[in-house]
């Protein structure tokens, strides 16, 4: 059974700092891994999708990496801004053909 | 449209009442998924569809929960005889091709059972 863990559970940084959010998964046989952002009381916004054959994806200030052999993915946020404050969720899709979510990292970027 | 539309945004039901939630997937997406988000960001998979066919229903509490995706109609998730523990945000997601495009989520329906 796939389990997804995100560390840390919460992170507070000053504006402008570069930061890394971590995601680990127990079953390396995944099809893809997707990072989402959730604002309080809102839905999920897809940030990046990394297919199993890829090692990283980039979108603007965001870069996500995937290492299937070690069961890890990281989300790198460059030059953080207060508007980046949200909960970041990673979700892995494996042979069960459904997403398994971590519990998220709550990010606060202080002005 | 390019968004997954969920209605209503909020729903309040007395314990024992029925609740029905709706989801209109993105046009052309053949996969639809329902997830339940409870406290502390726990997402629980409920059911998935490929077109109008149930693909995986391993997460559904079958005695009270049912779901449908019929042609030319929004998908629906129905809870008979709601319980306090059903209070959660229910998210619908759709996908064209999960491997290449991932999932697009709706904004959710917050169900409160009182």
* Individual helix count of chain A: 0
Inertia-based shape of chain A:
globular
Computed structural class of chain A: mainly beta
CA(first)-CA(last) distance of chain A: 41 Å
Task: Give the integer mean of the pLDDT values of chain A.
Answer: 94
Individual helix count of chain B:
1
SS elements, strand count of chain B = 11
Specify the overall morphology of chain B: globular
Q: β content of chain A, as a range?
A: over 45%
Separation, N- and C-terminal Cα atoms of chain B: 34 Å
**Into which percent range does the helicity of residues of chain B fall?**
under 10%
What can you see in these coordinates?
The complex is a heterodimer of chains A (111) and B (114). By secondary structure, chain A is mainly β. Chain A is built from no helices and eleven strands. In chain A, strands 2, 4, 5, 9, 10 and 11 form a six-stranded mixed beta sheet that branches. The model of chain A has no long low-confidence stretch (mean pLDDT 94). Chain B has one helix spanning 98-101, and strands at 5-7, 10-13, 19-24, 31-38, 42-50, 53-56, 65-68, 75-79, 88-95, 104-105, 109-113. By secondary structure, chain B is mainly β. In chain B, the strands form two sheets. In chain B, strands 2, 4, 5, 6, 9, 10 and 11 form a seven-stranded mixed beta sheet that branches. A four-stranded antiparallel beta sheet of chain B has the order 1-3-8-7, with no helix packed on it. Chain A binds chain B through residues 31-32, 34, 36, 38, 42-46, 49, 51-52, 87, 89, 91, 93, 96-101, 103-104, and chain B through 33, 35, 40-43, 45, 48, 55-56, 59, 91, 93, 98-108.
């Amino acid at each position: 059974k796939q389990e997804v863990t995100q560390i840390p559970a919460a992170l507070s940084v000053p504006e402008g700092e570069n930061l890394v959010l971590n995601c680990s998964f127990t079953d390396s046989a995944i099809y893809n891994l997707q990072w989402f952002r959730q604002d309080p009381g809102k839905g999920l916004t897809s940030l990046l999708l990394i297919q199993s054959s890829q090692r990283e994806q980039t979108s603007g200030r965001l870069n996500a990496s995937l290492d299937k052999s070690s069961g890890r993915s990281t989300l790198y946020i460059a030059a953080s801004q207060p508007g980046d404050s949200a909960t970041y969720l990673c979700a892995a899709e494996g042979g069960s053909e459904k997403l398994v979510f971590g519990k998220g990292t709550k990010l606060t970027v202080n002005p | 449209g390019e968004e997954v539309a969920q209605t209503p945004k909020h729903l309040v039901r007395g314990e024992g009442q029925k609740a029905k939630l709706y989801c209109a997937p993105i046009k052309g997406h053949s996969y639809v998924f329902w997830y339940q988000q409870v406290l502390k960001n726990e997402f629980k998979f409920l059911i998935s569809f490929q077109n109008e066919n149930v693909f995986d229903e391993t997460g559904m509490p079958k005695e009270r929960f049912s779901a449908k995706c019929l042609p030319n109609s929004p998908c629906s998730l129905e809870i008979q005889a709601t319980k306090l523990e059903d209070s959660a945000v229910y998210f619908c997601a759709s996908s064209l091709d999960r491997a290449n495009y991932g999932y697009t989520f709706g904004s959710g329906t917050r169900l409160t059972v009182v």
